[in-house]
Amino acid sequence: ELxxxxxxxxxxxxxxxxxxxxxxxxxxxxxxxxxxxxxxxELLRTLRTRLGTAVxxxxxxxxxxxxxxxRIAVMYxxxxxxxxxxDTLFAASRHPYTEALKLSIPRxxxxxxxxxxxxxxxxxxxxxxxxxxxxxxxCRYRIDACEHAVxxxxxxxxxxxxxxxxxxxxxxxxxxx
Length: 177
Fold this sequence. Notes:
single chain, alpha+beta, Rossmann fold, four-stranded antiparallel β-sheet, 17% strand, disordered C terminus
């Protein structure tokens, strides 16, 4: 019987047997302990650099993304809401959902609050999304216009795109412009 980490390695080996140019890794470290997670991430990093295989990483774990990805596309309700180089996204996110996700990550350089912030409300039903921005009902920056049209994904600075009509907010630290 194989451990979770060994099963992940076997799946990666099977995927690489045909020498793909792109490897799609969907939650490759879920349910693995921290040590095995680190080993799997190192394996993916090695594959990327040694074989030149592009890795598309699908995960909810921003810590893994920060460690492995060159670029990040943040999705909410099936739509990309922000996309940027990793360093840029973590330093200067421009979408309220991305900012809320970042605020929910525990940080070792700050005193741990009694409770990590969470995003108010509940995610929408993917089968019946609201007519405007899907994040609007949960967004602290929502205005009436957010509820009427799906915002397009537009470039706000070279290489950094967001889908939010509010250009006066979310400039990295969540402060108003």
